[in-house]
Amino acid sequence: MNNTLKSLSLMAMLFGFLLSFQLNAQTDEDVLKTVYSTSLTNGKSYEWLDHLSNSIGGRLSGSTNAELAVQYTKRELEKLGLDKVWLQPVMVPKWVRGQKEMGYFETNGDIQKVNICALGGSVATPNGGLKAQVIEVATYKDIEQLGADKVKGKIIFINRSWEQELVNTFQAYGGCAAERYRGAAEAAKYGAVGTVVRSLSSRQDDYPHTGSMGYGDLPVEQRIPSAAISTNDAEKLSEALKKDQNLEFHFEMSCQKFDDVLSYNVIGEITGSEKPDEYIIVGGHLDSWDLGDGAHDDGAGVVQSMDVLRLLKESGVRPKRSIRVVLFMNEENGLRGGRKYAEVAKEKGEKHVFALESDAGGFTPRGFSFDCSDLMFSKIEAWKPLFKPYLIHFFEKGGSGADIGPLKNDDIVLAGLRPDSQRYFDHHHAANDTFEHVNKRELALGAATMTALVYLVDKYGTETITDEKEIKD
Fold first, then answer.
1. Rg of the chain on CA atoms, in Å
2. Is the peptide bond before 298 cis (omega within 30 degrees of 0)?
3. In sequence order, which residues have a C-beta less than 8 Å from that of residue 303 and are 6 or more positions away?
4. DSSP classification of residue 389
5. Is position 78 annotated as part of the catalytic site?
6. Is pLDDT above 80 for 421?
């Protein structure tokens, strides 16, 4: 090595030492201030989301766009100078929507067109469409009470309204999600020829909201098509049925299901300086539905998770533990990516101590939910004053994220970023889940909030006082 190279090497070592010394001398308040400032003034999440949304678009599992998103995010992670970046193979379902769906109902000789979309995983209608008399029910459980005599040969309209009085919109969504997922399977048992399900949305509009549905163990030949109808058109159809119980509904869908195809989880890692065999992960799901561009669900979570690793590096944080970003494939219609990651981690005997997921939109962050012990939650709650300057006040036990759920065991702490949710289901799984509905500052605040929590967990660990003697001491 010549003298110039030796000098450069010594300078680099000195710079690293000084940076490490400076960081160690900083208080947690100082580190968080640096993280938030860097994200707000020099964040990358919005730029990455712009490309995912506007240059690639909707990223349905098994699609060309999903593959483009895999390659794009891998390249961007490689640019960050992480210690490792790799693709984890996973087989995913391939379902294609086909031509734009069409629906209308007839009453007293008049035709009323409605906005519908196929639910993910649905079979197609017969060539030329499906037309039959409609029966309205409030929940899928009402179908059994009607029985085969009334259901056979009919289209079942499941019109379960959103519970507007619930402030927690995820609670409201969960209260009616079973109608979308189980409605067609239940209706088919009693001889129905199709189902139309009210969109799971918090507002009245003309957007139908897709989402996953399933047939259970129903034989393929007995499966019936299932569509979502916009909330405005659900109201119109319900009102029309009150006037004409013999009303007929017509809809056409050309969706198809193909054999599973190969896809990937995208993973990047900063290797820990002291405990490299303990893993902390942050992530979101790279796939989305195909009606919009998946900006909130879950492009926002993907780019925020990527930015966590960049913000740690930019802020001079050298983690003790290995920090991974995991961009999961196939959360929307199968959860294959989350299950594959957990499966491989178990096979390798990897010790995961903490996992944080962002899959609730790119709105203003309010805090986190945690799946952990009471003792660990008490430890985490002690960090709340650090977040107060950034208006992060919500720390609650219960729930984390779908993709990190398969990692759950007695040793890991799971958490979910909780943004303000009041507008999330206006866009969820619909054509208006697009980039222009994401605010740059809100997105950057979410990335910083995630980074701050990861920094604290890495610094202080997930160990807790576990016996009475230690508590007294």
1. 25
2. yes
3. 44, 45, 46, 48, 49, 52, 284, 443, 447
4. G
5. no
6. yes
Tokens standing for 24? 């160690």
- Residue pair 359/105 in contact (Cβ under 8 Å)? The answer is no
89-105, pLDDT tens digit by residue?
A: 999 999 999 999 999 99
Would you say the C-alpha torsion 376, 378, 379, 381 has a positive or negative sign?
positive
Tokens read off for 198: 């009210």
DSSP labels, 275-332: EEEEEEEEEEES---SSS--IIIIIHHHHHHHHHHHHHHHTT---SEEEEEEEES-TT
User: Please, which residues bridge with residue 335 across strands?
Assistant: none
Q: Is the pTM of this model over 0.85?
A: yes
The upper half-sphere exposure of residue 142, i.e. CA atoms within 13 Å in the direction of its Cβ, equals 11
CA-wise closest residue to 57 among 290, 264, 330:
290
Q: For residue 349, what are the contacts with CB-CB under 8 A and spacing of at least 6?
A: none
| Beta bridge partner(s), residue 390 | none
Alpha carbon 434 to its chain centroid, in Å, reads 15
Q: Is 20's pLDDT higher than 80? A: no
Q: How many residues does the chain have?
A: 473
Could you tell me which residues come within 8 angstroms of residue 190 by beta carbon, excluding any fewer than 6 positions away?
A: 143, 144, 146, 147, 148, 151, 152
Per annotation, catalytic residue among 331, 347, 350, 357: 331
Residue 444 CA from chain centroid, whole number: 17
If phi over 0 gives left and psi between -120 and 50 gives alpha, with beta otherwise, what is residue 62? left
Task: Give the integer Cα–Cα distance in Å for 231 and 355.
Answer: 36
Taking the C-alpha atoms of residue 292 and residue 361, their distance in angstroms, rounded to an integer, is 14
List, for residues 189-227, the tens digit of each pLDDT value: 999 999 999 999 999 999 999 999 999 999 999 999 999
Sheet holding 321-328, edge to edge: 84-96, 256-270, 321-328, 275-285, 351-357, 413-419, 365-371, 394-397
